[in-house]
Structures are given as structure tokens and as C-alpha cells.
Design a protein that fits this description.
Keywords: Signal. By secondary structure, the chain is an alpha+beta fold. The protein is 21% helix and 30% strand. The relative contact order is 0.12. About 9% of the residues have low confidence.
Length: 276
């Protein structure tokens, strides 16, 4: 009986040994815990980057340079040696100076928009994240324009160019009051009835749809222009503050206003928009 008990106990130890040995086909599996990854070093303290200042990085090896978030700075990569003139983030004076950089690669960083940006530099061919170098920049961005003083008035914006006739080509319309010409001086009469102005218009105005008639008109007020083209009906219908009235257009810009009292001034206006 004692011999039988000893035999059973020996068999139990044998089975236990087999179960604890993975090579023996046991069913127990221990979890395999991967070694903890190394924590990247904390970034260096933040550096201020003014709007008109360069932050320059030199490297003797080619690098990848990343910014996070994007859009706060502009990065330029150039081969050295390099000579730069401007203001630099590490300057103690804040004044414009000239510097020479002799490294193989030069990375210049300039402010674009205000915010905090992380610069990450990783050498090409690096084997791990631990080789990356980091720096935080407080990007101050472009300076906003100064606010106007309380009593100052904003400067008026330039008015858009007048285009009395949108169609392409040089066209002229003179409107006058045929019933009352007492207000016309000699030069204005010369512009309305003289041959010199008509000669200029015939040589510079574009041809009309018929291919014969030049696109200029000298019309009295109150005329029936219903038989004319839409271009001239619309031009004739435009507001006139007085008569005689001069309208000039080359399709891109033009003039609308009282017919000048000087013939030479009228001719100069025509040449301004229609050429010499």
C-alpha cells in the first residue's frame, strides 16, 4: 500500500512538471509584456519670435523640420554657407545686423500668425524619436495696424473707375441744348460744331455694327433715339447734371462731366482715354 501511494505521488509530480514546462505542451500561457518605451525629453523653454525677426537653425546634417500646429510660421531651408541681414531672435540688441552661417544646412523660421508653435527637428536617417530636438516658440505674428485717434477721420477710399459704356472700344457722346445755346462759349461751340474734334473722333473711335459709322455722337437734348442701338440708348439715358455734357468711354474707364470751357482741355480728355 505504501509502495502504491509513493508511485501515485511520483506520477503527480511528473505531471505537474510537464504542465509547468511550455516545451512539454502545457496549456498555461503567461502574458508577454513589452518593455516600456522611453519618454521623449520635455521641450525646451519657449522663445519669443517677433514678426520681423528670424529664428535660425544650423545643421551639419540634413534634417526633417516639422511645425505643430501648421500655419503659424514659415520655414525656409537653404544650403550653407549663407549670409543674412536682418533681426534675429537670439540677438541681445534687437537691431538689424548681418550674420554669416557656415553650416551645411540653414533653416530660417519667420512668424506668420500669432500663437504657440512647436518646432521639431529630426536628422534624416534617425533611428528613433529620441534623436529629435524640440523647441517651443511664442509666435507674436504680424503687428496689427495702429488704431486711429478718436478725433481722426478715416481717409476716403478712392472711388471706382467710371465706365460709362461697358462695351469694348473708344466711344464719345456730347449732349447739348439746341434750343438755348446762349451759355456756350466759343471753345464749346468749336467742340460741338468744329471739324477738328470730328476728325479726331473719326480716326480714334471704333466702327459701329454696320462697319462704316464711327462710334461717336453729338446729340441735342430731347431727341428720339429709339432707333439707335442699345449702347447709345443707354448712354443717352444716363444722368446729366448739366448741359453741354461730355461722356467718354474706352470700355475700361472713362469720364462723365460738363463739357470743358476750353477746347484744348476737351481734346486732352479725349486723348487721355482714346490715345494720341
Amino acid at each position: 500500500m505504501k509502495r502504491l501511494s509513493a508511485t501515485i505521488l511520483a506520477l503527480c509530480f511528473a505531471f505537474a512538471a510537464c504542465a509547468s514546462d511550455p516545451q512539454a505542451g502545457g496549456s498555461i500561457r503567461w502574458p508577454e509584456i513589452a518593455p516600456a518605451q522611453q519618454v521623449a525629453p520635455a521641450p525646451s523653454p519657449a522663445t519669443d519670435l517677433q514678426a520681423d525677426t528670424w529664428f535660425v537653425i544650423e545643421s551639419d546634417v540634413d534634417c526633417f523640420l516639422f511645425t505643430s500646429p501648421k500655419g503659424l510660421v514659415n520655414v525656409t531651408k537653404e544650403a550653407g554657407p549663407l549670409r543674412l541681414k536682418g533681426k534675429f531672435a537670439d540677438s541681445s540688441t534687437g537691431k538689424t545686423e548681418t550674420r554669416s552661417y557656415k553650416a551645411k544646412w540653414i533653416y530660417t523660421i519667420e512668424a506668420s500668425s500669432a500663437g504657440q508653435c512647436e518646432i521639431i527637428v529630426l536628422p534624416v536617417g534617425a533611428k528613433g524619436e529620441d534623436e529629435a530636438q524640440r523647441r517651443i516658440l511664442n509666435v507674436l505674428g504680424a503687428q496689427p495696424p495702429p488704431e486711429p485717434e478718436p478725433d481722426s477721420k478715416p481717409k476716403p477710399k478712392p472711388s471706382p473707375k467710371v465706365v460709362p459704356i461697358a462695351a469694348e472700344g473708344f466711344r464719345v457722346l456730347i449732349t447739348f441744348d439746341n434750343a438755348d445755346q446762349s451759355g456756350l462759349n466759343e471753345d464749346q461751340q468749336k467742340a460741338i460744331y468744329g471739324a477738328e474734334l470730328r476728325s479726331y473722333l473719326n480716326s480714334h473711335c471704333v466702327l459701329g455694327p454696320d462697319g462704316k459709322l464711327r462710334e461717336w455722337r453729338i446729340w441735342a437734348t430731347g431727341m428720339d433715339v429709339s432707333g439707335e442701338s442699345k449702347i447709345w440708348r443707354d448712354a443717352y439715358a444716363r444722368d446729366r447734371q448739366s448741359v453741354p455734357w461730355l461722356l467718354i468711354s474706352n470700355g475700361k474707364e472713362g469720364f462723365e462731366g460738363p463739357l470743358p470751357k476750353s477746347f484744348n482741355e476737351t481734346l486732352e480728355l479725349l486723348k487721355k482715354y482714346g490715345g494720341q
